[in-house]
Structure formats: structure tokens, C-alpha cells
Amino acid sequence: MACSFVIRSYWSDSLKYLVCALCLLVSVSAIGAEKKPIAVKVFIAGMFEIGANQGDKAGEFQHWYERYFADTQPIMIPGALTPVFCNKNGVCGSVLGMGKVASSSSMLAIVLNSQFDFSHSYFMISGVGGIPPSQGTIADVNWGSWLIDYDLGHRWMPEEGEAGAPVFMPRQGYEDIRRYQLNPALVNFAVSLSKNAPLKDSPSAQAYRIRYPEPQARRKPAVTVGTHIAGDTFFHGPGLSAEAQYMSELYGADDYMIAEMEGVAIAQVLARTVGTDRMLSLRGAVNFDQGNPNESTLAHLDPAPGETAGGFAETVENIVIVGGSVVDHIVSHWSDFKDGYTAK
């Protein structure tokens, strides 16, 4: 912004200095106004996208992008995997990257970037995951009540321990970062608001479900709540699923519901910066965390053609149907949420 003052030769030196000072003040104020940080109401984080943000097969971010960011411009952030997008209503989002290191690195770069004001922000961590057939089914959408780190501890081969005993033991020193309980009032609000969301289903998902005998695995998709366990190792099979449930019980958390790869690491970033009281973790179930009784764990991990689980497309759409209702409510009732959420 150019200064509009014109210095006259016949002015006194003191007047010239005063005019120059005013000009400088106006210029600095203009620059400050132009660079005012974006006040973020809700930040939406996907972990991966399959291709583009629109127009092709959707991953974890495309439906969010189409709902909130289609008319926005990318904001480049040093250290983040992908640009951030922000709309005029204070909703921002980005793809952080898969795994604990990639996702937490991007989240830290974004939270610390001076282009954003996260002092009142809510964080919607959104992605897909696996689910135990005893707890849910393909295309379920699950709100995380607890986030647990699968990797922080000691493990050994089953044959090297007591027969039938757990093969995991927590490591001392990680007590504050191996598990996080998310704000119960906020989680309960999100569940209550979204529990009757009209979830999508498909014939392919229905056909896949009937391979499993568990009633929960065979039912229609639903909105549920429970513990999300994140590991950089894609743990799989009935034995490791039982171990995940053992860890949940060991840590005093709710039942293990979702296997994923990022949540607890992002929680640690937020705990160190802006806090986790406004954090939500939302995951859609795109696979069971183990095979059916007629297939081995390896066969389930590396299925033959035509044997893969159906329902991926419906699940990533369900995530946004469920999560979008909460995002919209927070934004439209901002005065009730700006200073934090407590049970009404």
C-alpha cells in the first residue's frame, strides 16, 4: 500500500519528520492487516489422497475438499506434505501423510505456521482403518474416545514367553504419550449429533460381510465410538487383534475399535502446542483386522483377485457425512464453541 502523503519543500523539518512517521505507520498497519493470521474454526486432516483432490477415485480427503474447499486457493506451508486450504467460514484442511512420522511432522509445521491462528480451533482427524469383526463392520464410522500407541512397549515371540500369556509389556517413561483420552464431552456431543446419519452401503460390502459369522460384522453400517490404536506396523490377525484389546484394557481405555496409523502421534503434537481438548478422531472401517474362519491371516492380507473387501468408496463418503454434520454445527454455532466445549 503506497503512502499518499506528498512532502512539500517549504515545510519545516519537524513537519516533514512527522509526515514521514505517519506514512510509515500507515504502511506498517497496512502490511499487518494484509498478513493477519487466518482464524481457524475447524481444521480437517486427512492422511492420504489417491490422486487429485477432485474428479477421480476419492481417498481420505477428496470428499472433504469438495464439500469445503473446491473454490479455495492452496496455502503453501514449509514442512507440510501438502498445501492447506481454507474457506471463508474458517474451515481449513490438508493431507498430512500416512504413518506417525509423516502425519505428525505435517501437523506440527501447520500448527506453528504464522499464517494461521489456532487459538480457538477444533481438529477433525479423519481417515480409514480396520475393525475387529466382533465390534463392527465395513462402512462403519467410529468416533475415537481414546487414542493408543501400539508401538511403545516391549514385545517378544509367543514361543519365548509363557504359553497363552500376552507378549506385550508397556515400557516405562512413555506414560504421558502412549495413550490420550479425548474430551469426553466433545466426543459424546459428536456421537449424539451424528448417530443417525444416513450412511451409505453397497452390494459388494454386503456380500463381503456374510463371510464372517459375528453378528456385528454382518449388520448394516452404523456410527460407533471406541478406542483407536495406531501402529506403524499394519498389525493384523486374530492374535494381534486380541493384543490390541489387551492393551486397551491395560491402559484403562474403552474397547479397541479401530486399527490405524496416525492418531496418537497427531495428539502428541497438539498436546505440546494447542492442547487436545478440541481434538476429534473419526475413522471409517474399510477392512476387518483379521480374516474370516475360512482364510488365513496371510491370505486376508494378500487376497486373491475378487476377494478384497468392498465398501471403500462408501466408507470414505460416510466419514464426511458423519464428520461434516459436526463441522457444520460447530461453525454455525461458533459462539457456543469458540471458548471450548463442555456438556450442556
TrEMBL record:
Which PANTHER family did the record assign?
PURINE NUCLEOSIDE PERMEASE C285.05-RELATED (PTHR38643)
What is the protein's given name? Purine nucleoside permease
Which Pfam family is an annotated match for this chain, by its short name? NUP
Give the GO terms filed under biological process for this record: nucleoside metabolic process; transmembrane transport
Q: Which organism is it from?
A: Paraglaciecola mesophila KMM 241
Q: Name one GO molecular function term.
A: catalytic activity
Database matches in InterPro entries: Nucleoside_phosphorylase_sf, Pur_nuclsid_perm
